[in-house]
Amino acid sequence: MCGMKIRYFIVLAGMLFMLACSDKNLQVEPLFTNDFPQTWKLMKMTGGMQPTVFAGEEMEWQEKYIFNADSTFTKIRYTDGDTLSVSGSYIFTEENGDQAFLLSYREQNDLIGSCTPLEEYLYFDSDKDNLFSNWWACDGPGLFYKRVD
């Protein structure tokens, strides 16, 4: 009887260990998990043939992302008195140790700043308080965002 209790305990402990060590390491821990909606505003852009930096009103356009708790987002751009917007869904992902929002769009739109159609990556910097777009990897401008809420 005692041997049966020990076996039961060992099996139970093994199951708990397996649950605790399951594929959690493969999942990206979302930043600010319970802190939505989040608004990230374009703070500066770089680009051009010569290295230039534009900030504030010097930028060609103003824009922001609003991320919602239900894994949806809206991107809003203000330019020359016009307001344009597009929406989609996002997931948290990790690539080469860098955490990012992977944005997915349903259809092509001029507001998508990316190297691939219908997807956009926004990476967190090492301090996790700024985002930057991967668009510059394919000759787009460098776009840098700061959380404003």
What is this structure's SSE topology?
Layout lengths: L1 H19 L17 E10 L4 E4 L6 E6 L4 E8 L2 E14 L2 E8 L13 E6 L5 E4 L8 E6 L2
Antiparallel strand pairs: 1-2, 1-3, 1-9, 3-4, 4-5, 5-6, 6-7, 7-8, 8-9
Describe this structure in words.
This protein has a single domain, classed as Lipocalin (Beta Barrel). It starts with a helix and ends with a strand. The protein is globular. Strands 1-3-4-5-6-7-8-9 form an 8-stranded antiparallel β-barrel. The chain is mainly β. The longest helix is centred in the first third of the chain and has 19 residues, at 2-20. The chain has 1 helix and 9 strands; from the N terminus they run H-E-E-E-E-E-E-E-E-E.
How would you briefly describe this protein structure?
This protein is mainly β and 149 residues long. The chain has 1 helix and 9 strands; from the N terminus they run H-E-E-E-E-E-E-E-E-E.
Describe this protein with a few key phrases.
single chain; 149 residues; mainly beta; Lipocalin; 1 helix
Arithmetic mean pLDDT? 82
CATH class: Mainly Beta
* CATH fold assignment: Lipocalin
* Count of separate structural domains: 1
Helical percentage: 10-25%
Order of helices and strands: HEEEEEEEEE
Please tally the β strands and state the result: 9
The percentage of residues in β strands lies in 35-45%
Continuous helix count: 1
Rg value = 21 Å
Low-confidence stretches: 4-30
Strand order of the largest sheet: 1-3-4-5-6-7-8-9
CATH superfamily: Uncharacterised protein PF14869 family, DUF4488
Largest beta-sheet details: 8 strands, antiparallel, barrel
Q: Which secondary-structure class do the elements indicate? A: mainly beta
Shape: globular
CATH architecture: Beta Barrel
Distance between the termini: 61 Å
